[in-house]
What does this fold into?
Amino acid sequence: MISSIAELIADRIGSMPAGERRAAQTLIASYPMIGLKTVAEFSAAAGVSSPTILRFVARLGFQNYPEFQSSLQDELAAQLQSPAIRTLNPPSPGGGTASPMLEATLDNMRETFRHLSDRQLADIATRLAERRGKTFLIGGRFTDPLARYMAAHLAIIQPDVIHLAGQESMWRDRLIDMGKRDVLVIFDIRRYQDSLVRFAEKAHQRGVQIVLFTDQWLSPIARFARHVIAGRTAVPSAWDSSAALFVVAETLIGAVTRQLEPDGARRIREMEELR
Amino acid sequence: MISSIAELIADRIGSMPAGERRAAQTLIASYPMIGLKTVAEFSAAAGVSSPTILRFVARLGFQNYPEFQSSLQDELAAQLQSPAIRTLNPPSPGGGTASPMLEATLDNMRETFRHLSDRQLADIATRLAERRGKTFLIGGRFTDPLARYMAAHLAIIQPDVIHLAGQESMWRDRLIDMGKRDVLVIFDIRRYQDSLVRFAEKAHQRGVQIVLFTDQWLSPIARFARHVIAGRTAVPSAWDSSAALFVVAETLIGAVTRQLEPDGARRIREMEELR
DNA sequence: CAAAATACGTAACATACGATACAGCGCTCC
DNA sequence: GGAGCGCTGTATCGTATGTTACGTATTTTG
It folds into this structure.
């Protein structure tokens, strides 16, 4: 079975004329970068003419050059998605329990944070901590618990933290209280919920700043969001994993808490006394 | 020092107008693949117009779009050359600008699973999957969202999954429905809640099998529990972390789902049709 | 609240890119 | 050694792509 273009080339290079073979070897030599450049550059690097390059990709079975490039890109994307772990990694020191689920989850988290700058987290934390207005949180079918989790913590260190629960009509009515000084934290991963998108749009129209937790494919809500956190969700399971988003949420909770010191600490003490 | 375009973006995303920020977020979310495609595709993916994309790359300091793409390609090429660096590259180890929070969380998960045998997880999964009786879930102040999360999934693949919400009196009344064929999943970490302990004790007296998610110091409920999952919770933050427990929960959800195949799959399909 | 500044999208433009037709050259096989 | 075939490069064409100018909407500032 042939799964990559490199294998495809290796398979057919024997039956290629000289010029195309040079093209093939050039591509293999610095696979796959040359193939992502223009026909002109490719041909120059291989020392052949552009039509030869085009005949080369045609022989590989592609209709045209862009199609060939897309194929290369997809291959690359697939490689980048699954970090080196699979290529060469003994299941982890410590007699790895071998739970592929755990390994995938850890990868997801590393990957998620790799695409997430400290700066961005700090910006969001500041926005949540300055509390010029209220903070609303809501989530989808499976992610609403994350919204609750975050709300449970934030509500302790500052006032005006509201988790939007219950039916759609319930939260829609809360829109009336939401304005441009407020922040709305939304969790929405595939399959994205129309009701949430609608709600986000309305909130956005009212000037509410939206912080979106979503997956790497970005919920449509990203269009209205001021801040977008894209977490990796793929795991070897029937379900998507929200673990990476959960960790980001915890990190954010920690950052907000730190920013609210020492006020937050005082507030916590007061709260303890009230029990 | 800024060495990658991703860092460059992270550095400047704060001072970007809304449209360009969307472009930035879209690029980061599937870094760097979108940037290798055409301006039209990029703009469509980001939901903005092509000029916005061009202004975005201009703001990053590139003269034109092709120059930007070349830069991305060079970066990719460098990454592909040395796969070793890619495994644990991001910031240097030890010097870690990277959130110590993340590192601690990852350690917690590894530690948690190291003390958790596959056998134990499989046993619990079996118990939850055989559904001779009902499954009840409940959590504490901060962990109840985990109970909800688990309930949301389990309820889809099998009937009689009940999340106990609301006030203490509410769930105490549900005790009447609970018997020795039923399972109670409890989440309880420091500071352990008396109300939960009391509830667990009563349930235990009625013969309910208890599955406890707790921290490494073990909630008093462990005395009544049939299965105890002890997760690490310590992180450099004002709060404890429930992330490790969250991952165990997800793993368990996955295991139960697998055991219920293909019945679960059929049930999911039926459910989809009902919407 | 008014006015200025900034940001965004629409539409027209020019360029550069991929595609194609055709002619020259070398190679193979009678 | 000559005729035929196949491979390759040059030159040209159409088009998709990146670019720019301008008008409108939105936000910011006094």
Notes: DSSP finds 13 helices and five strands in chain A. The longest strand of chain A covers residues 209-215. Chain A touches chain B through 69 residues (CB under 8 Å). Chain A has two domains: 5-81, 102-274.
